[in-house]
Amino acid sequence: MSFGNLLWESVVKSWGGMLTFLSFGAALLVFYLTPKNTSVAINHVLPIFILLFFLAVVSLRAAWISFGYSKLILPKVIHVKEPPKAYKNAFALFLVKPTPLLSHDAIISVYYLEDGLEQLVGVGKVVNVQNDKKVQIVVTNDYDFGEKLNNLKRNSKDELDKLVIKSSVPSFILENVYNG
User: Fold this and answer.
1) Band of pLDDT at residue 46, cut at 50, 70 and 90
2) Is 155 left (phi over 0), alpha (psi -120 to 50) or beta?
3) What are 99-140's pLDDT values in tens digits?
4) Which single residue of 1, 50, 168, 176 has CA 20 to 30 Å from 140?
């Protein structure tokens, strides 16, 4: 999410329209209702105070939204099966829990957690984000699945929990693309 989008979402979720309307309304009331002979020009101070209050509310909301996004966790695989015929060279089709980390046609890497180490076993791409926000991934490159892939296709929860999906790929894979 870009900084501009974060600020806009914060304004909208902070009752931005209502706070803005109230701020301008209060500023106009103060401007027209305060006597001209006051020693402190409250008709200038109060609008500034209201504006600063509004900015503080938006800033706090932006910090809260950012904190929520910082707790995003890697998506979990919930089902593995044979790939559809449309993807002839693919090795498997993964169904992954909903996540904002993956979008259509994104390249992903698949790791297998074994003895506390994440080992790269494959690379794939997102082929569909379903209406229920679950993500379909086809594994297009098998680097070290071996017999693990057959075990995964049995959909054992223990085996599926060992899969780690990341929305990035190791640089050596991209070097092959760039260097031909």
Assistant:
1) confident
2) left
3) 888 999 999 999 999 999 999 999 999 999 999 999 999 999
4) 1
Structure tokens at 133: 């926000």
Residue found under tokens 């009752």: 15
Phi and psi based region of residue 29 (left: phi greater than 0; alpha: psi -120 to 50; beta: remaining):
alpha
Tell me if 126 sits within 8 A of 103, measured CB to CB.
Answer: yes
CA-wise closest residue to 138 among 146, 127, 129, 151: 127
The pLDDT of residue 56 is 81
CA gap 160, 155 in Å, rounded: 7
Residues 46 and 39: their CA atoms lie apart, in Å, by: 14
Tokens 């990341």, residue located: 166
How would you class 122 by CB atoms within 10 Å of its CB: exposed for 0-12, middle for 13-18, buried for 19 or more?
buried
Q: With pLDDT > 70 as the criterion, what percentage of the chain qualifies?
A: 82
Model pTM score: 0.61
SS3 31: helix
The pLDDT of residue 83 is 92
159 contact partners, CB below 8 Å, separation of at least 6: 148, 151, 152
Q: How far apart are CA 164 and CA 171, in angstroms?
A: 18
